Amino acid sequence: MTQADKILYTGKTHVTGGRDGAARSSDGQLDVKLSPPGSSASGTNPEQMLAAGWSACFIGAMGLAAQKLQVALPRDTAVDAEIDLAVKDSSYFLRARLNVSVPGVEAEVAQALVDAAHQTCPYSKATRGNIDVVITVV
């Protein structure tokens, strides 16, 4: 395990029932019903949760990059994430697309922010080399 100088936060959850179950955080702030992707059952699924978490983290990393580049990151910066649960030869895998909108920022600057964020975002680091990821400035 990689050594850390400091632990900033530890997210703790308890999940029961897998994709047909429930997830609750230790502090009670997250309390969701889980359902399989594409089903009509109420609840969310792990792919949606990954998409939301990665998007939020990515925008945070863009904010840090904007500070370093001395650029104002617009409040309406957005990431539309798509996480595919796929199968090939009976083997399941994930792949991702992040479509990033940085309104009012020049295309070259927006691309620089996205490139820097992808290098520093912990979700990007965790998935790098493990799943196919396409990031597009829209």
Overview of this protein structure:
The protein has helices at about 45-70, 105-120, 120-125, and strands at about 15, 20-25, 30-35, 80-90, 90-100, 130-135. Helices cover about 30% and strands about 30% of the residues. The chain folds into 2 domains: about 1-45, N-terminal domain of TfIIb, CATH 2.20.25.10; about 45-135, K homology (KH) domain (GMP Synthetase, Chain A, domain 3, 2-Layer Sandwich), CATH 3.30.300.20. A hairpin with a 2-residue loop joins strand 4 and strand 5. The protein has a 3-stranded antiparallel β-sheet, with no helix packed on it. Strands 4-5-6 form a 3-stranded mixed β-sheet. It has about 140 residues and is of the alpha+beta class. It is built from 3 helices and 6 strands; from the N terminus they run E-E-E-H-E-E-H-H-E. Helix 1 (about 45-70) packs across helix 2.
Largest sheet: 3 strands, antiparallel
Q: What is the name of the CATH topology of the largest domain?
A: GMP Synthetase, Chain A, domain 3
Q: Which residues form runs of ≥5 with pLDDT under 50?
A: none
Provide the domain count: 2
CATH superfamily of the largest domain: K homology (KH) domain
Got a strand count? 6
CATH class of the largest domain: Alpha Beta
Task: Please bin the fraction of helical residues.
Answer: 25-40%
Question: How would you describe the shape?
Answer: globular
Beta percentage is 25-35%
User: What class do helices, strands and sheet pairing give?
Assistant: alpha+beta
**Total helix count?**
3
Biggest sheet strand order reads: 1-2-3
Q: Could you give the order of the helices and strands?
A: EEEHEEHHE
Query: For the CA atoms, what is the radius of gyration?
Result: 17 Å
Mean pLDDT: 97
The first-to-last residue Cα distance is 37 Å
